[in-house]
Design brief:
By secondary structure, this protein is α/β, with parallel strands linked by helices. The protein has 16 helices and 18 strands. The strands form five sheets. The protein has a five-stranded parallel β-sheet with strand order 5-4-3-6-18. The protein has a five-stranded parallel β-sheet with strand order 8-16-9-10-11. β12 and β13 form a beta hairpin. α12 packs parallel to α13 (about 315-325). The chain is globular.
């Protein structure tokens, strides 16, 4: 049987709105796709799932039209399936190990996960019973994917959990970093509401490290603290003209549009520049998100400028294909070297062509400049998406917290830091993590916190 394709908005339509691109499966389509699963005894697909979902079991339930039971099976190990089904890179995780990949396309595990998770949101959550209510409270700093995972796992074990979130809405990168057309905010809020139904409390507008310190949390009675602060500090190129107006970090640009609804200005009083000729620098999912957002804000031309080739791009293949369909022009083996402007605003980006040399520490061939290949692009907006660093606000204020040479928190294999009772995971440990890998680290830390408190 061929793989069932999910219906999508047409490119010429979707570039004018922020509605979700994919419509997902209908129940009938989902059942047909589930019938493709071979139900392998060794279940190789589970090898690629960082949160350990019993993939064959939930797909078997879909085959039997037990859609809600399939959602409940997933939630035995994953509290955020509607999110994971949309934004996790299944093609390099669970689906990569699917037996069908040897002769055909793998089973669409992510789309099936989204299908049953969305159905449960529509029909109403089933709240699992907690065997024993415990009295040892846990604080979770940050409500991104790692923090939400820790909170959900510990709440299911009976722990009272309080999440402290610096922003005015829970979700972390899920709400400020990922655009509405990839992950609707109502889906994130539904998943957060599920955690609240488990007993998780959320304190918004609370900056740990400013409003409260870690010592304050311990004094308030918390027995353990998980840090999932996210990588909120942008990385810039440090080249001439980078301080011109019209040049954004992807963090600021996406936060204004995604979380603060700048695309609905003036209904939402959050202005953002709407460029006509926009250059986005980078090759990851964040860069593609920024480029596709700029199109939807009315840009006439959007360039994605990446110093390596298409083969080295870390972005998801599906998002890359969507960006090409929508008209983003890809400039590979290209590196900006200077920005020029007039009256304080960027007007031109000077670039140099690159070629691939020897592999670097990532295993990818290092790009090197081609002498005499400089050229310039006329632009009125530039968005820099070349990486982020761990948020330094709290980290710099915790004595005894060991960091590595890049400024990330040092943890052991179970997420434990050098400060007693404090655990960490996600971007502040690795510097960069996908949603699902951050969740995987969160699950490890949740088990370690349980062992520590036991």
């Amino acid at each position: 049987m061929p793989k069932i394709k999910a219906q999508e908005q047409l490119p010429k339509e979707r570039i004018h709105n922020f509605n979700e691109v994919s419509f997902g499966y209908t129940l009938e389509e989902g059942q047909k796709e589930a019938e493709r699963c071979l139900q392998c005894k060794r279940a190789p697909c589970r090898q690629g799932c960082p949160v350990g979902i019993d993939i064959p079991a939930f797909i078997a339930l879909i085959k039997e039209t037990k859609f809600l039971e399939a959602a409940w099976k997933i939630k035995e190990t994953n509290s955020l399936p509607a999110i994971c089904g949309r934004v996790c890179p299944q093609e390099i995780q669970c689906e990569k190990f699917c037996t069908l990949r040897h002769k055909d396309e793998p089973v669409a595990i992510g789309r099936l996960e989204r299908l049953v998770a969305d159905l449960e949101i529509e029909k109403g959550f089933k709240i699992p019973e907690v065997r024993k209510k415990l009295k040892t409270p846990v604080a979770v700093v940050g409500s991104g994917p790692a923090g939400l995972t820790v909170a959900g796992d510990l709440a299911r074990r009976g722990y009272p959990v309080v999440i402290f979130e610096a922003l005015h809405q829970a979700g972390g990168v899920l709400v400020y970093g990922i655009p509405e057309f990839r992950l609707p905010k109502k889906i994130v809020q539904a998943e957060v509401s599920y955690l609240e139904s488990l007993g998780v409390s959320i304190e918004l507008n609370t900056v740990i490290g400013q409003t409260l310190s870690l010592d304050d949390l311990f004094k308030e009675g918390f027995k353990s603290i998980f840090l999932g602060l996210g990588a909120g500090a942008p990385v810039f190129m440090k080249i001439e003209g980078e301080n011109l107006n019209g040049i954004y970090s992807a963090n600021e640009f996406l936060t204004r549009v995604n979380l603060m609804r700048a695309y609905l200005f003036p209904e939402y009083d959050t202005p953002v520049k709407r460029g006509k000729r926009v250059a986005v620098i980078g090759g990851g999912n964040v860069a593609l998100d920024a480029a596709r957002t700029a199109l939807r804000l009315g840009a006439e031309k959007v360039y994605l400028v990446y110093r390596r080739t298409e083969a080295e791009m870390p972005a998801r293949q599906e998002e890359y294909e969507h960006a090409k369909e929508e008209g983003v022009e890809m400039l590979f083996l290209t590196l900006p070297v200077k920005f020029e402007g007039k009256d304080g605003w960027v007007e031109k980006m000077v670039c140099i062509k690159m070629e691939l040399g020897e592999p670097d520490e990532t295993g990818r061939r290092r790009p090197v400049p081609v002498p005499g290949s400089e050229f310039s692009l006329d632009v009125d907006q530039v968005i820099i998406a070349i990486g982020t660093r761990a948020n330094p606000l709290l980290i710099s204020r915790v004595p005894g917290l060991r960091l590595n040479e890049r400024g990330y928190i040092k943890v052991n294999e179970r997420g434990r830091t050098s400060k007693k009772g404090v655990f960490a995971g996600g971007d502040i440990v690795t510097g960069s993590a996908t949603v699902i890998s951050a969740m995987g680290m969160g699950k490890v830390a949740a088990q370690a916190i349980h062992d520590y408190l036991s």
